[in-house]
Amino acid sequence: MNDSKKLSTEAYKGVRDFYPEDQAVQNYIFKTWASFVEKCGYAEYNASILEPADLYRGKNAENEEIINEQTYTFTDRGDREVTLRPEMTPTVARMVAGKRRELGFPLRLYSIQNFFRYERPQKGRLREFWQLNVDLFGAESKAADTEIIAMAYGLMHAFGAKEGDFEIRVNSRQALNKLIQELGIEEVYDERARKLYRLLDAQKKMTEEEFAAGLREIDVAPEKLLSHEMPEDVAAVVDPLRNTGFMNVKYDPTVVRGFDYYTGVVFEVFDTNPENNRSLFGGGRYDNLLSLFGEEVPAVGFGMGDVTIRDFLQSRNLIPEYVPATHVYIAVPSPEFALSAQTFAGELRRDGVNVAIDFGEKKLGDQIKTADKHKIPYVIVLGSDEIESKEVIVRELKTGEEKKMPIHKLAEFFLKR
Amino acid sequence: MNDSKKLSTEAYKGVRDFYPEDQAVQNYIFKTWASFVEKCGYAEYNASILEPADLYRGKNAENEEIINEQTYTFTDRGDREVTLRPEMTPTVARMVAGKRRELGFPLRLYSIQNFFRYERPQKGRLREFWQLNVDLFGAESKAADTEIIAMAYGLMHAFGAKEGDFEIRVNSRQALNKLIQELGIEEVYDERARKLYRLLDAQKKMTEEEFAAGLREIDVAPEKLLSHEMPEDVAAVVDPLRNTGFMNVKYDPTVVRGFDYYTGVVFEVFDTNPENNRSLFGGGRYDNLLSLFGEEVPAVGFGMGDVTIRDFLQSRNLIPEYVPATHVYIAVPSPEFALSAQTFAGELRRDGVNVAIDFGEKKLGDQIKTADKHKIPYVIVLGSDEIESKEVIVRELKTGEEKKMPIHKLAEFFLKR
């Protein structure tokens, strides 16, 4: 095959390949997510990445625009319009509504899945990302909102973040709606209200002049936005958290959250790094979403994406060093020893050790280099002498240290590391 | 919103929703896969489900047909043709070719991911399925083929299958090519050879008459197919396995495997259940695939799908009973106790217990029913008395048994279960 016909080894635009060391970071994030939310009583669910496009249409004409411009939507050969899901909330709402009578409430669900958005790839924004979604259905109590925000806090701690590293800013859609009314905007979802929400949402990325110009454009006096007291529903959620010692949880009247479906308390977790002061993730209460399916179930939840949290962990040096799952590599003097190595490895595996073997197609030195490239911590060379004497030399690659050991002691040695 | 406008709660055609009990089965399968292949020294990788459509075109015109008729392929707004991956091998070949100089060989990789095929949903075949993919790159030795087949065997055992439950049938593409030559077919990949492969592949689903008619159509005398001796390359792989005691590994001249890219030993694992005698999964050697990307790297591997293995496990009663991750449910007499319950739960969680709480919006009896619906094994009712006395009653829901216990003994009790 000539060069001009070579296939590209590039991935599709805006998505990532995860080689083992990268995948290990993903797995670290996923495991931290899963073990923390299971501690809080959440059960894992999943659904397909393909959903009927109608799921994202909802009631607003603007959604049509979002579907057409921001999602991957196409028509299958059966003339069905399908979308690569851009978020999990509509899916989990669909699933809970579909089995409302069988499921017990309060119902705690989580999933760790991938999503697609059609956007120009940039820092912190890719076309495909992975996200933890946590949702609590069937509870109206403010204690449910408190639980959800406490979990956002707890997750940051589970990743090793300190209280000063982040801040949780809480607002309420009801308070925002009241503001809208005070501004004389009659419909909560009309164009002017939408523009104001978007302006508040973008405020931190704008200069004061840009923000003031935006307010003028929709005819809102800046003083209307200033110094609101903490609304009652926000206080009912924030006070118990601060009383428990979560001092970085604060009321912030500018927190909006992008999605239309929020109805109550909303929150965002911010990176406090002055050079990177931005929203890491967030969520809130969405009590009316299931009515799209003819069911009435209150709900509160949040989503936490892998791209932003990975950036955050990197910037704080919180990603653990790569350690492969494989404990030891067996090198052999020549190909004839490969089957013996496999038998030897089989015994160690039965005792719980993770073992890879070499087939002896290359020189011993090169086999050891392979183990080193894979960052496998130990190597054993298995030849006739070792098989006969039932003793091997275990070499630690990082230090070069060697240790003679009877074969029956190996499993214990590796499992202790 | 009136009823006629209600959104459907159905998933897209041919894909599945996984509620917690179903997801637990998936997780059982995924964990069994991951822990077994890591024992054998394989490292996890991943890539996006979206791939450039060109990746599946290859050299054969027939591939164009497969892309158009059997995959989800669409054009994005940047005029790129993209495919929802139907299998992992082209992706992993792309990734290994892309970093050929940095990666050490032999290289052992695995992934557990989802795939899409555009087909009519039926038993054992869905539009979306999950699959374990195991690939070993950079080894020409027959011992590498042996390792891969031994892993297929080991995985069946890891799921609790007995040797009599399945059979591994091995053949060789080289032997098939020799057969093609004996039949006077000049080109290995011409139309007649393809038809013969497809016929052999489908033989077990056909009557003798249908098979004979198929042979007549491509002008092949049936006696040409009979009683071949085990080819040398198959023997080199099968003999060491049988010598190690894997007695259900056999030579079978009718095993073909669908994909064009196989070049050497191929195998399929069959369910021996006479009512369901079919291929569960398989794989083989594909030494030339990376040449599509201008690299020469020998490779051998297999894929094992969730749909067929789940059916198999179900038919043999090998799926473990559902046990939720949550150890205990805290019920409360009224909503005022929700925050105390949260504090109490927080302490248990710090000790490693997975705890869900109720918010007291319903009667105690209904709260206990919720725990029962979620199959959480234990319930504690937390009221003023319990908070004051620091003693609680732990109720086991299955037996109704109750046990009084000081709070500081709880973590130990739950973690022992």
Description:
The structure is a homodimer of 417-residue chains. Chain A is of the alpha+beta class and 417 residues long. Chain A is 35% helix and 21% strand. Chain A has helices at residues 20-39, 61-70, 89-98, 142-158, 173-182, 191-202, 208-217, 232-243, 306-315, 338-350, 364-373, 384-389, 410-416; strands at 43-44, 50-52, 72-75, 81-84, 107-116, 128-137, 166-172, 249-251, 265-271, 279-285, 299-305, 328-331, 355-357, 378-381, 391-396, 402-406. In chain A, the strands form 3 sheets. Chain A has an 8-stranded mixed sheet with strand order 1-5-6-11-10-9-7-8, sandwiched between helices. In chain A, strand 15 (391-396) and strand 16 (402-406) form a beta hairpin. In chain A, helix 1 runs antiparallel to helix 4 and helix 4 (142-158) packs across helix 8. The longest helix of chain A has 20 residues, at 20-39. Chain A is elongated, with a radius of gyration of 27 Å. The first copy, chain A, starts with 19 loop residues before the first helix and ends with a helix. The relative contact order of chain A is 0.11. The model of chain A has no long low-confidence stretch (mean pLDDT 92). The interface between A and B is large, with 104 and 105 residues.
